[in-house]
């Protein structure tokens, strides 16, 4: 955990590490403000058609070139389901209807920070599949022929669980 080079959001003073409530946290020596690190919230949609899963190849780091589900961070004024629908629209051109909440996946392998991925299933209800600036390629895959490498941040776990029939 990085605890250096941060400045207080309240007064701009350089924060210092302090052992607080049994954890090392950053605290402002001037005003006492404490920075509580929290997990980032993201949402993803599993879109399955004719037994095949829709996946995209990432155009950007981290995990550039790996395959993942349409997904992204939840903005502060939207629900995870709203974020999921928005991300699918932005990354794929498809309009989806959320059908089920499939689960929540904690991940600690993302260089941008630990997070919780809320996974939904979705069904295309409009739009048109197209490449976006965020994707190098897209395709659908059957359980026995997944692409490699798969993206981290829980995408790899989810895609393999899907291939094993976990969401059937
Ligand atoms: Zn301060």
Q: Can you describe what's shown?
A:
With 168 residues, this protein is mainly β. It has 2 domains: 1-37, Ubiquitin Ligase Nedd4, Chain: W; 40-163, Alpha-Beta Complex (Nucleoside Triphosphate Pyrophosphohydrolase). The protein is 13% helix and 40% strand. Strands 4, 5, 6, 7, 8, 9 and 10 form a 7-stranded mixed β-sheet that branches. The chain has a 3-stranded antiparallel β-sheet with strand order 1-2-3, with no helix packed on it. The termini are far apart. The model has no long low-confidence stretch (mean pLDDT 95). Bound molecules: zinc ion. Zinc ion binds next to loops.
Average predicted confidence as pLDDT: 95
Question: In CATH, what is the homologous superfamily of the largest domain?
Answer: Nucleoside Triphosphate Pyrophosphohydrolase
The CATH architecture of the largest domain can be named as Alpha-Beta Complex
Indicate the percent of residues in helices: 10-25%
Estimate the strand proportion. 35-45%
- Shape from CA axes? elongated
CATH topology of the largest domain: Nucleoside Triphosphate Pyrophosphohydrolase
- Low-confidence parts, pLDDT < 50 over ≥5 residues? none
Q: Outline the biggest β-sheet.
A: 7 strands, mixed
Radius of gyration (CA) equals: 19 Å
Q: Look at the helices and sheets and give the structural class.
A: mainly beta
- Encode the helix/strand succession as letters: EEEEEEEHEEEH
Our measurement of the CA-to-CA distance between the termini, rounded to an integer number of angstroms, reads 38 Å
CATH C-level of the largest domain: Alpha Beta
Treating each run of at least 4 consecutive H or I residues as one helix, how many helices?
2
The beta-strand count equals: 10
What binds here, in terms of ligands, is: zinc ion
What is the domain total for the residues? 2
């Amino acid at each position: 955990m990085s605890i250096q080079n941060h400045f207080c959001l309240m007064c701009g003073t350089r924060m210092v590490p302090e052992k607080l409530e049994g954890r090392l946290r950053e605290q402002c020596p001037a005003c006492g403000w404490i920075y509580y690190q929290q997990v980032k919230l993201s949402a993803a949609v599993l879109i399955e058609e004719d037994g095949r899963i829709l996946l995209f190849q990432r155009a950007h780091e981290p995990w550039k070139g790996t395959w993942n589900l349409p997904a992204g961070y939840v903005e502060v004024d939207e629900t995870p389901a709203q974020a999921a629908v928005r991300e699918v629209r932005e990354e794929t051109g498809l309009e989806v209807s959320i059908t089920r909440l499939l689960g929540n996946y904690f991940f600690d392998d993302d260089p941008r920070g630990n997070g919780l991925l809320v996974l939904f299933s979705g069904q295309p209800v409009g739009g048109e599949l197209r490449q976006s600036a965020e994707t190098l390629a897209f395709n659908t895959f059957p359980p026995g022929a997944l692409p490699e490498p798969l993206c981290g941040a829980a995408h790899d776990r989810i895609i393999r669980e899907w291939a094993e029939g976990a969401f059937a």
